[in-house]
Design a protein that fits this description.
By secondary structure, the chain is α/β, with parallel strands linked by helices. The chain folds into 2 domains: 133 residues, Enolase-like, N-terminal domain (Enolase-like, domain 1); 257 residues, Enolase-like C-terminal domain (TIM Barrel), CATH 3.20.20. 39% of the residues lie in helices and 16% in strands. Strands 7-8-9-10-11-12-13 form a 7-stranded parallel sheet, with helices on one face. Strands 1-4-5 form a 3-stranded antiparallel sheet. Helix 3 packs across helix 5, helix 4 packs across helix 5 and helix 9 packs parallel to helix 10. The protein is globular and about 60 Å long.
Amino acid sequence: MTHHRRNWFRLAALGLMAGPSALAGQGKAPLKITGLKVTPIALPDPPLLNASGCHGPYFLRNIVEIETDGGVVGLGETVGGRRASAALEKARSIIVGKNAFAYRGFARELLALSPGCYAGIELACLDACGKATGRRVCELVGGPVRESVEFAAYLFFRYAADNPIVLGDPHRLDPRRPIDAWGEVRTPESMAEMAAKFRDQWGFRVFKLKGGVLAPDVELEAMRAMAAKLGPEALLRIDPNGRWKPATAERIGKAMVPLNLEYYEDPVRGQAAMAEVRRATGLKMSTNMCVTRFADLPEAFRVKPIDVLLADHHYFGGFAGCQALGPICETAGWTMSQHSNNHAGISMSAMIHLAASIPQLTMASDTHYPWLPDEDDVIEGPRLAIKGGHMAIPPGPGLGVTLDRDRLARAHETYTRSGMAGRDDANLMRRLEPGWSSGLL
């Protein structure tokens, strides 16, 4: 009975209780889906460190294209890997012949395949509908409440891209080409220098450190070094990805109270432990680990583990799900931001449109986008610009971006030749640091 009620709550929040015929309307569908193309890709990834290890040579994504009877092609991007690609391929028989404007009508079936499957196809439908009507995606989902969206610098401890072990990864196609020139960042001082460079290049005001990598006290010193380097106008965040023990998280959290800390993200695992750290430190807590689906909400209302929820349309039921979170968060007294994983320009545009359309999403969103080299994005032209820490809504219809077919083909060839089927950060990490483990600190 509990499982049934939670499913009902999730579907009601997404606005999916109406049947497909009610959503599609009467008569001929104005934008009938006639085909689906799924292109798995691999894009270069720097050796960024996190609680799970070290990023391998490529990150994986799936590019989605829906074809329609009006000749309009809608673009989507979603999580990568063979399992995600297989789910998207299964979606073809579900969506072909349906109305792109009525994408919520087939949401149940796509969500049953995977949230990422629904997110990629929903996005492609929204892009097609925008192109067909000459409207931006944000205008199709209620209109923008802001024309530019703030993003945070996403800072990682890392190895140098020309490290011989990094270049020698067996999945890497070109062992002579380092992805970037950042160099190794594994001390508090070098992290503070990186933060200053992100500020100077992109104008960021908010800085998030990916923790759970070095000793907790070293990461505390990195936060102090960043605060000293960036000055009092900078807002700081740290995300140990649940790798710290509760006692560690409480001790480090209390030591960070004097810093200009905007929030403390997932230092421990589970809602109960998060709530205890929140009570012990008095710090604002955020998550993209202990509240990641609608079924997690009832416990969160009871336990009170967080103050900030990081939405992600790839996991939380697409645009529809994330927009439904807005009033829920407001009622719970939470503010909103956006979680990020590695992504290309289509997802970057989607994140801008989504953040622009949710009134409650007032905190700077995460993004990995600065780590992707210009020449490797799959959209035409240069990467979408980050100026003063903000990104403007792309001005064209739909998502406002166009696929670069040559780059897409190159990224697909990289995927095919690399042999990568999914993400495995522990693999490279164990070669860099023999004996490494992901145990709690």
